[in-house]
Amino acid sequence: xxxxxxxxxxxxxxxxxxxxxxxxxxxxxxxxxxxxxxxxxxxxxxxxxxxxxxxxxxxxxxxxxxxxxxxxxxxxxxxxxxxxxxxxxxxxxxxxxxxxxxxxxxxxxxxxxxxxxxxxxxxxxxxxxxxxxxxxxxxxxxxxxxxxxxxxxxxxxxxxxxxxxxxxxxxxxxxxxxxxxxxxxxxxxxxxxxxxxxxxxxxxxxxxxxxxxxxxxxxxxxxxxxxxxxxxxxxxxxxx
Length: 240
Known about the structure:
This protein is α+β, with helices and mostly antiparallel strands.
């Protein structure tokens, strides 16, 4: 599978997860009232990170926003911060992914685009971790109160928003991992290609050297004995 196709799959997965995370923040049913142990239920309660709502038997709903940020429970404030962080990380991850993908014409050289795509993958992974952490923290509080025999107030169950948030976080993590793996595969292929070219060039130069008639460096030209032969010829005729 080519790295470009991997990047497209990663972008679709991560962007889908980011959209699910964004929709989770505005959903109402993070927790819904439980009917366990109740014979007659005239109204139902549900809440999210921003407000608390009630629906009566006629189907009319009325909601009330949380009055004060400082008066909220700590887990709600933590979930707010984690979900907002997840949305921002997913947004910037989408922007960097568009710049770093090989199918786009922006981002500079291939090496620079690979680094940007890897950074986008890391941001998507962090976005998914924040979303999973927020939903898990909220669900832990709900289940703790539900199974606590000493808790006498209204008990709640897990709402549909938590499952959507979990799904979005998992998709973001999968997309970010595929982004990072595609970049790593691209780097390994380029490195192996460079090694192959280097070895082929080295072997070609070695073959050229062995086939050529190289002259030894230390070889010295033969001594010219023409002068001594002429001297001997002269010595024979000197007394004639």
